[in-house]
């Protein structure tokens, strides 16, 4: 649905240049929720603005639904942008308009008849849980309600793609949960493809099927969550399933094992102890219900050095269980 190839964007000032995007490539499948994670200044917002060509990249291509947006003249580009909805961090609502007026605005500018607009607005407000608030003004709404208006407005033109620019960062934890639940529900019910940027790992955990870590205008790592969890040494997996620093225990083997999907159902420790006649101790562990799967990471202690435990470590890896020796 979204294909980004070798995207580069440089901001040029009087005395210096800043490379915001440095050859970025990304593919988002139809119906997928893809999260791009990174700190402020990593290039996330520039990436998002380049997807709908609000920022034109210096080089590279952006294809949405099979259409290369970077090759379009401005008039055709305006038409294609209607297929892409946008949710903003600070809501970007018109304070002089009611809830209904804000949602209908995108339809007004495209010439949709009044009666059709009214029906569509009513459908959208019901969809986002704002029935009965059509005549309220933004100043009368909570932060979560304002963001629901922003989501309804982004959906007004029935887009195939929804872009989310830190949509929950201005909200409290409880409201964040409700907005994430709404986005996940819209993804399931409408088949929306959602590309979101965030600095919060919990957002990725809650609703994303795929994710990328962005740093200095590049992707440090990317992939489907299920694939990331199976990738030894994955930075994303370590952040999704955090265990903290490993203890220093000379002469013993400290290892982290990651389980997800079918492997999460196996009596792993019992199998390991029985097969290799070793006493297995659990030093720590975490289990998370991720959007794509239930997964966990265990930190185990085996007596003897890693060389002594080579058969056990080989068996774990051959069984498809990502295993990292920590000490």
From TrEMBL:
Swiss-Prot/TrEMBL keywords: Amino-acid transport, ATP-binding, Cell membrane, Membrane, Nucleotide-binding, Translocase, Transport
Please provide, alphabetically and separated by semicolons, the GO molecular function terms listed in this UniProt record: ATP binding; ATP hydrolysis activity
Statement: the UniProt record of this protein carries the keyword Flavoprotein: no
InterPro entries linked: AAA+_ATPase, ABC_transporter-like_ATP-bd, ABC_transporter-like_CS, ACT-like_dom_sf, MetN_ABC, MetN_ABC_transporter-like, NIL_domain, P-loop_NTPase
* Residues covered by the ABC transporter domain: 2-241
- Return the GO cellular component terms, semicolon-separated: plasma membrane
The record's section on Pfam families has: ABC_tran (PF00005), NIL (PF09383)
Q: Which Gene3D superfamilies match?
A: 3.30.70.260, P-loop containing nucleotide triphosphate hydrolases
Give the record's GO biological process terms: amino acid transport
Family label:
Belongs to the ABC transporter superfamily.
Q: How does it assemble?
A: Homodimer. Forms a membrane-associated complex with FtsX.
- Please give the function described in this protein's UniProt entry: Part of the ABC transporter FtsEX involved in cellular division. Has ATPase activity.
Please identify the protein, giving its name as recorded.
Answer: D-methionine transport system ATP-binding protein
Q: Which organism is it from?
A: Catenuloplanes atrovinosus
């Amino acid at each position: 649905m979204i294909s980004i190839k070798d995207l580069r964007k440089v901001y040029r000032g009087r005395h210096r240049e800043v490379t915001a995007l440095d050859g970025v490539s990304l593919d988002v499948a139809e119906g997928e929720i893809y999260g791009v994670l990174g700190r402020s200044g990593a290039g996330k917002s520039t990436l998002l603005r380049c997807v709908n060509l609000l920022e034109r990249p210096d080089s590279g291509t952006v294809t949405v639904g099979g259409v290369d947006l970077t090759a379009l003249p401005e008039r055709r580009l305006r038409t294609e942008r209607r297929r892409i909805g946008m949710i903003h961090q600070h809501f970007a609502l018109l304070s002089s308009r009611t809830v209904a007026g804000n949602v209908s605005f995108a339809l007004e500018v495209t010439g949709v008849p009044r009666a059709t607009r009214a029906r569509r607005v009513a459908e959208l407000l019901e969809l986002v849980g704002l029935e009965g608030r059509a005549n309220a003004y933004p100043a009368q709404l909570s932060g979560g309600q304002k963001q629901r208006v922003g989501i309804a407005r982004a959906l007004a033109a029935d887009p195939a793609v929804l872009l989310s620019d830190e949509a929950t960062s201005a909200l409290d934890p409880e409201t964040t949960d409700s907005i994430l639940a709404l986005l996940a529900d819209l993804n399931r019910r409408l088949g929306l493809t959602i590309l979101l940027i965030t600095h919060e790992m919990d957002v990725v955990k809650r609703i994303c099927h795929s994710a990328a870590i962005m740093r200095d205008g590049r992707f440090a790592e990317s992939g489907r969550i299920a694939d990331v969890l199976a990738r030894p040494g994955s930075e994303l997996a370590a952040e999704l399933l955090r265990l903290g620093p490993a203890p220093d225990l000379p002469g013993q083997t400290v290892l982290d094992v990651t389980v997800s999907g079918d492997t999460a159902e196996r009596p792993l420790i019992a199998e390991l102890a029985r097969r290799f006649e070793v006493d297995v101790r659990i030093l720590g562990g975490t289990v998370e219900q991720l959007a794509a799967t239930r997964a966990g990471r265990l930190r185990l202690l085996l007596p003897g050095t890693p060389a002594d435990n080579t058969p056990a470590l080989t068996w774990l890896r051959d069984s498809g269980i990502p295993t990292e020796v920590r000490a």
